[in-house]
Amino acid sequence: MASKVTPIPEGFHSVTPYLCIRGASDAIDFYKKAFDAEELIRIPSPDGTIGHAEIQIGDSRIMISDESVEIDFRSPDSIGVTPVHIYLYVEDVDRIYAQALAAGAKSLMALEDQFWGDRTGTLVDPFGHRWYISTHKEDLTEEELNARVAKFSEGS
Q1: Count of domains for the chain
Q2: Which of 30-34, 76-80, 92-96 is predicted least confidently?
Q3: Quick one: which of 6, 16, 61, 123 is 20 to 30 A from 84 by CA?
Q4: Strand residue runs (E) in the chain
Q5: Helix, coil or strand: residue 93
Q6: pTM: predicted TM-score of the whole model, two decimal places
């Protein structure tokens, strides 16, 4: 008797980013070095590029494929910017942020304790995608958060 197929495959959450990258193989190597990613699957296209791949960072999966202009699947290199920003929670933001810089990421915003309760820094990876690397430091009620937003807005 066959097992029941679940509507969300094992290991996935309801939302899964799918990154289009020019140089997906190099990107996978970068994500391994920068974010301790684990490569789960790699399906090559006939031309040797990556048709589909999946990596795992922490408890989350990310799908990756090389750019395919023929089907209008374009990378940040092709369009000049990324519309994709990934917020990555890690246990030790200082370590992972430094590790990502050493692997080739560029800092857009240095690590800093933020008013919403996270210690966060912003990086752009060598393939054009933006990453907010964070460790959650304090839980806030909605009222506390609104008060901090108001105070932050006054200082801007």
Answers
A1: 1
A2: 76-80
A3: 6
A4: 18-21, 38-44, 50-57, 60-66, 85-89, 106-113, 118-124, 130-136
A5: helix
A6: 0.88
